[in-house]
Predict the 3D structure of the following.
Amino acid sequence: MINAAIVGLGWWGKTLVESVADGSEDIRFVAATTRSLSDDAKSFAAEHDLKLFNSYADTIADDSVDAVVLVTPNSTHVPQTIAAAEHGKHVFCEKPFALTGEDATRAVAAAERAGVTLGLGYNRRFHPEINKLREMVNSGELGTILHVEATMTFPNALFLKPGAWRADPNETPCGGLTPMGVHAIDGMIDLCGEIDQVYCQSFNRAVDIEADDTTSILFRMRDGMSGYLATMTATGGGFNFQVYGSRGFVKLEGMTHIAGASSEERRFKLFGTCTFKPIKGPAETWQAEGYDVSRAALESFAKAAAGGAAFPIPVSEMVHGAAVTEAIVKSAQSGLAEQVG
């Protein structure tokens, strides 16, 4: 059993605590860290029997804590990961792991020196429909992969206050890229391998904060297939992920994390209607099962930290994903296609 501290008690930090609150055999939360010891934080900590800190340094120095789960502003992930590793703590980091490939490499190096486990919150990788799709790709059932594309949308930026860290373009560059789009990029890396080149255009169309709300990205994979991703942060919520092969395509539909949605909805209902359309014959359509992807990701991390099977996202893919994010932001600024370092 891994004893973990949740670092950040916003809506997503609370969701992660709730995902294992009914008695996981692999991980339990024993502490929480928040910058503001509000009445709400104190109430949540009391409800879940969490030792409450307002200092990250005190958290990682506490001997009762085996691991930290970081649900903090994007720019803090790398220094917090390095500090935790230096204190011998395992680290589960919410996405994005880092905003540059170089920073991701530094964080991985610190974890490897300390011999601690790194986990990353790309929870959609753990859903049975993604596992099924991966098997179809790897077995050749879809034939030669031609193209992969995704659209991820939510209205959350319409309700952000200017002082919120999620409203800061330095923390969340290219609009929906880091809160949503990196999930799809991780799926592309998982299914299609490394990404070689990106081109991004990103604009502010509707939100009042100083941030983009409409972003589109083209990809070329190193193995030759193409990709496309669109994110919008000022419209209705939705998720589509499609893989096209020479024998047919698979389309997965579902949800994104809408502000104010219930914990159950955020955890169990990210996938909905699924379709397989072969090149001949009718389409097959079915509904994805409800599955707590947040719990699955945390438990996989805990098992790896306890000496079990390795966490399924290799650190090389964590670093590559950060390098792709860096290249996308660079492309949005330059107006040019950019190579992934």
